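# step 3/5: fold
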Amino acid sequence: MQVDAHQHYWNPARGDYGWMPKDHPILSRVYGPQDLVSLLTAHGIDQTVLVQAAPTIEETEYMLGLADATPSVGGVVGWINFEDPANLPHLQRLAAHPKFKGVRPMIQDIPDVNWMLRDDVQWAYRALIDLDLTFDALGFPQHLANFHTLLTRYPDMRCVIDHCMKPQIWDQAFDDWAAGIMRLAQDTTACLKLSGIVTEAKDGWQIDDLRPYVDHILTVFGADRIMWGSDWPVCLLQSSYDRWRETAQTLTAHLAIDQQARIFGGTACEFYRLTVPR
């Protein structure tokens, strides 16, 4: 089964996408299943994982409604307020939905780099473990050390690192990112998404700009722990869906067929426990 392990649908009129620039020609428009279906068909993609883009439970409910009506959405990664333990009943209720897979706090947008280690948010990680839900780790290279602390503190939490932890490819910043990623690969059981890196590359990027970063994650994580995601429609800032998909396939073409199958479907199916649609 072919899987896009990271994509978004949104409607800016809902009013809770605080990060989204107003009147942006690419971002600030409605994106729904009808906009993606032809691309999924063209690339033979059977399932997607729909990921939160707003820090509200209401957006999570919105996504689950879309998932109920869209067979290609195999799973939803939502949001709860980690700073409020009263959100536990919300998490328990959401966990009962067959397509709800886990949560993603928007750590990259939180000014306090140490937020994830604060005492008042630890209940949420324990709840994810108790409910057997997933955790999408969204951050920048500056967060690598704290994610290492977090994931070694909770080895039973099922975690995937979003967007390769956003290496600053535009600045050719490799060494510190590579060392932090290697520590996560060696010391934790986290998976990693081969996604979101085209928007960290410079304008006019070429495939060789991305190659060292992809080669590194393939070396330290291995195909069994890597899943491809489009990050559509955010990827449209720097690439079409087609170009990013084809670039990822080119950068992994030297791998054995079974390893390619893991990256483009198998790892995501296993991690998110996706089922083949009827």
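# step 4/5: annotate
Strands lie at 3-7, 47-51, 73-78, 100-103, 134-137, 158-161, 191-194, 226-228.
# step 5/5: archive (pending)
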